Amino acid sequence: MRVPPRAWIGIAILIGYLVIIAIVAALSGVPYEDVGTSAESIFRVTVPSFVIGALYLVVVTTALGWWRPALFERARSARRWPIIAPVLMLVVAIVSLAQTTWEDFDATFLLALLLLGIGVGFCEELVARGTLLVGLRSRYREVWVWLWSSVLFGAMHLLNVLSGSPLDKALPQVLVAFGSGTVFYILRRTTGSLVWAMALHGLWDISVFTVGHNDATVPFAGLATPVVAILGLAVVAWVIKDADERVPVSSRAVA
Question: Whole-angstrom Cα distance, residue 35 to residue 130?
């Protein structure tokens, strides 16, 4: 790595990313409650946010030389069975998408949703369970790495308050994000790669944005999401136990 990992660097990268998202959202002029309701709103707010955010993250990660530790574990968890939590999340997303009335979407809206999924999966995973993990692992034991990365991932969603979301709606999002962040962390540990977490995260968010176009009287995702989060919290300890991912701060080998 060109730059030795530090916890403050990982946190600074996260803050920089959030500043970019906030500025783009403010400049778009689209009210928070309208984001995701149309292709236009996604192309005006979400897509530019993730394009600029992705460029920022790519440049920073390359400059630091952190790509390998950001994307891959040195050794994935010896306990693979906790992957049941991410698998359940995948099932919930697929069922939710299957219940969606796709006739409500035109080709432009579908393209917007696809770009949204790719953007959120790449950006949020790279910043929250990529560079942030690299930084935290230089200082903390793995249990704290999991906890702080999940807490900060949840706290990221408080940014919605600045965009106009009522606090009473943003706080539940923070809790759900903490739980889902734990599930994505489990997927990284059990597969040894952040790429699978990026893919699941993107699919999950697409399913979330299509819930309003769901055929079911009570959307399956609404009932199952808390179960997924609770399951993740119940099994995460088993992928933490055998983790040996701490990055020596003296490491200077170019990745």
Answer: 26
Give residue-wise pLDDT tens across range 214-246. Answer: 665 456 667 788 999 999 999 999 999 988 777
The pTM of the full predicted model, rounded to 2 decimals, is 0.92
Which residue type, as a one-letter code, is found at position 121?
Answer: G
- Residue 41 CA from chain centroid, whole number: 21
How many angstroms separate the Cα of 7 from the Cα of each of 133, 229, 231?
Answer: 8, 26, 28
CA distances from 40 to 37, 52, 97 (A): 8, 18, 21
Question: CA–CA separation, 25 vs 49, rounded Å?
Answer: 7
- Amino acid present at 38: S
pLDDT digits 0-9 by tens, 239-252: 999 887 776 655 44
How deeply is 172 buried, as exposed, middle or buried, from its count of CB atoms within 10 A (0-12, 13-18, 19+)?
A: exposed
> What is the structure's pLDDT at 222?
72
Structure tokens at 44: 């005006």
Count of CA atoms in the C-beta half-sphere (13 A) of 7: 13
Whole-number Å distance between alpha carbons of 196 and 85: 13
Q: How far is CA 138 from CA 9, 69, 142, 210, 232, in A?
A: 10, 11, 10, 39, 25
Residue 68 CA to chain centroid, in angstroms? 18
Of 51, 64, 86, 78, which is closest to residue 13 (Cα–Cα)? Answer: 64
Length of the chain as a residue count = 255
